[in-house]
Amino acid sequence: MTETTGARSRTRRAGKGLKIDRIFTTPGVHPYDQVTWEKRDVVQTNWKSGETIFEQRGAEFPDFWSANASTIVTTKYFRGAVGTPEREQSLKQLVDRVVLTYVKAGKDHGYFASDEDAEIFEHELTYLLVHQVFAFNSPVWFNVGTSSPQQVSACFILSVDDSMDSILNWYREEGKIFQGGSGAGLNLSRIRSSKELLSSGGTASGPVSFMRGADASAGTIKSGGATRRAAKMVVLDVDHPDIEEFIETKAREEDKIRALRDAGFDMDLGGKDIVSVQYQNANNSVRVSDEFMRAVEEGKEFGLTSRLDGSVIETVDARDLFEKMAKAAWECADPGIQYDGTINDWHTNPETGRITASNPCSEYMSLDNSSCNLASINLLKFLREDDTFDVETFERVAELIFTAMDISICFADFPTEAIGQTTRDYRQLGIGYANLGALLMATGHGYDSEGGRALAAAITSLMTGAAYKRSAELAAVVGPYNGYARNADAHNRVMRKHQAANDEIRVLHTMDADIHRAATKAWDQVVKLGDKNGFRNAQASLLAPTGTIGFMMDCDTTGIEPDFSLVKFKKLVGGGSMQIVNQTIPRALKKLGYTQETIEAIVEYIAEHGHVIDAPGLKTEHYEVFDTAMGARAISPMGHVRMMAATQPFLSGAISKTVNLPESATVEEIEEVYLQGWKLGLKALAVYRDNCKVGQPLSDAKANKDDKKAENEAEPKVEKVIEYRPVRKRLPKRRTSQTTSFAVGGAEGYLTAGTYDDGDLGEIFLKFGKQGSTLAGVMDAFSIAVSIGLQYGVPLETFVEKFTNLRFEPAGLTDDADIRMAQSIMDYVFRRLALDYLDFESRSFMGIHTAEERARQLETGSYAPMTTSGSSDEDLEDELETYSQSPATTPAKKVEKAAKEVDKSGAGAADARKADAGIHSSAELLEAFSGKVNDAPICMTCGTKMRPAGSCYVCEGCGSTSGCS
């Protein structure tokens, strides 16, 4: 990112408030005035039914926002009834609604030294949001600045005791949280087991029984909710007497799903019969102690204890119980595992109470009856053009965002008084990031490599260090959190643990060394300022799934995740869709030292095959840079675990992430993942084995295959072979042509170009060398080959891309004013043809300009004529439509050009082609490449296959998630 001012943004004590300096904005210029805005029509359909599920015309967004980002923000975050004057129509209205609420609260609660500081804060926050540098979690966009309760938190932890009043209150509180668009988690271990007696003498129901009621409640609210599906987490301690029943609960339900499916019932997710299956609306996790894990290692017995008096009710073999956990996870992906010892060893408030549970995605872990406000930073925004990381700006941005997050607690509403009181007393925040996978790839780091882990650890350390430093500075201005005095020793002990972990980072490259140096300084200040001022916040950071907000920021990867796949499905502004190789790939190849020609060949190979295996010119030692979450070179399960372990010591909370395993994985492999997660110091872990769940909506593809199979069995086989061939479009007998004389490096020649009636190039003749010479013969043969290629539909753009920049003699000065230097005859010829026969946008994309255009660029900063900016989006979209209707007559490269022009996300498109009509998401695109169906749910809003995001799933079509943030 490029700074617009040289002023250093450092916050210092100034009277009773913060003094805020500028980072990106300019005095006297509003951030909106630095952006080009455009109107877009947002229309969303369910591709299965063809039903229009949303339509809003004329929504206003910056021109660099992608179609997907603008669609998701319009459908998810704009408030007001569609078609009414109250409906938000512009990103400006949305950002103002949120930012101005924060600024007002900051003023009211004494955060700023002056009105000028408040205005700078407003402008900087606005700039960061409009430029997709970070995003608040979804509830902020849903609720802040509206007439609804100002719920800003995405994550909640509830509490339930061993009484019927408490259990019924649990149901009510969860319902209120789901209604607000958030998720909740809780630990049921206080509820006595089914092996214990009630005071009346009867036998207790046990926690698993009460889970049924809560599951039904969540399912009902999920169906009627207006913003997102319900998300919840249920935790049970490993020493609870009902632990085996809890472990096997969802696995047994999966057996039921299989039986009902085989009997002909509709058991797909969202199917009419799936509601008969229980426990499907929650993630389950077992909370294991260090004592239990040591018993597993040593093969010892382990005691299950009474909830009433703590006595041992039953003794079990620890390894057997551990194996049952792994087997259940192998069968249905539940339960996950949470490591109680590690969680509470890093707890800043042990004097107040233990951490017993987490939010649904397992990244927020804190006191019972508490909540957490999240925000995530787009890491790729800090990678400069020269592939260096803007360390100082990243630190300043983290401080500014953290300030805003803390202000939100001042005006926030909460679903229960207990949650509100705990949150105001402890002010837990969760700053995090997205696009780590894209950053690692763009800088040439393998996700599962020492270099990749060192960079991720350094960035995470700096982020949390900057956040806690700001927390200590805020404590000096507006006071420490209410629970700090009681927990001061413990809080400062954890800060020193973070500092010690930072000292253990072993950097490998200049980039992570620079970041680590800044992190070391930050943690030094954290410890010093904390001892002096205390801290404003009990928690500061975590890594969330960043599903919907990841799309809002046009991120290529979510949270801590690696790239999902190398080829993505991309929607275009105004309609249409493309299959696009992400721009991080050519950037990574350039960083690794490959030539432009080799980069083009590799990118083209990836576009065809979806992976890098056997890509032309790519060294095998560089394959790991392009490893992905899914596909031909999927990252190993332990690769995911090691990345989590690298960043965990620098997070207040935990990490939302699922470790994916292949369908062939064994129960023993899952046991090893769980065991290593404990040894490596993780706080929580979830696994997912491909195709382990039956109740996933994969029946469309399978049903179609079954239908076709039945048809084939019923009818005689008639083998039909359809062969597609290009058709040669011959030039008319009489055609227009022009001859250009040229000289390259003192050698002279002639170029004759013939055209069709519509002006398109159809043939070339090159005269170079004496008649009858070998050179003249080669030139004649080359001319014929190019001419036939043009007539068979090979776009001129392709020839220009392949033959410009070729280097051989003769080369040097030319006699052409538009092309002063040429690296070879071919370089000159195809540059000349590009200038004569390609439109401005196409050749400008390849860096080919006339002398007049270069002169204009020096004067105005733009190559384009003042009277036009090239083809409009509408023209380009029309071109896409024309292609979709008549692919045989429109060159594919024109579609690629259209994609590059219309896609303004900033991510770019290295290679683009029209997506198959049956593909609607990156998950489906990956299936097309791999020939294997991905085990992921279908979005119940728009029918698109979702893809993983942390421990949740997110829909690329409408932004819906299965999680809480």
Automatic annotation (TrEMBL):
Region Disordered, annotated ranges: 857-913
Functional summary from the UniProt entry: Catalyzes the reduction of ribonucleotides to deoxyribonucleotides. May function to provide a pool of deoxyribonucleotide precursors for DNA repair during oxygen limitation and/or for immediate growth after restoration of oxygen.
EC assignment: 1.17.4.1
Residue span, Ribonucleotide reductase class II vitamin B12-dependent N-terminal domain: 41-132
Keywords: Cobalamin, Cobalt, Disulfide bond, DNA synthesis, Nucleotide-binding, Oxidoreductase
Domain spans labelled Ribonucleotide reductase large subunit C-terminal: 153-688
InterPro entries: RdRp_reductase_class-2, RNR_2_N, RNR_lg_C, RNR_NrdJ/NrdZ, TSCPD_dom
Coiled-coil residues: none
Bias type Acidic residues, positions: 872-881
Cofactor(s) this protein cannot do without: adenosylcob(III)alamin
Source organism (scientific name): Ornithinimicrobium tianjinense
Catalytic activity, as annotated: a 2'-deoxyribonucleoside 5'-diphosphate + [thioredoxin]-disulfide + H2O = a ribonucleoside 5'-diphosphate + [thioredoxin]-dithiol
One record GO biological process: DNA biosynthetic process
Compositionally biased region (Basic and acidic residues): 893-904
Family, as annotated: Belongs to the ribonucleoside diphosphate reductase class-2 family.
A family per Pfam: Ribonuc_red_lgC
Segments forming domain TSCPD: 731-836
Gene Ontology molecular function: cobalamin binding; cobalt ion binding; nucleotide binding; ribonucleoside-diphosphate reductase activity, thioredoxin disulfide as acceptor
Name the record gives this protein: Vitamin B12-dependent ribonucleotide reductase
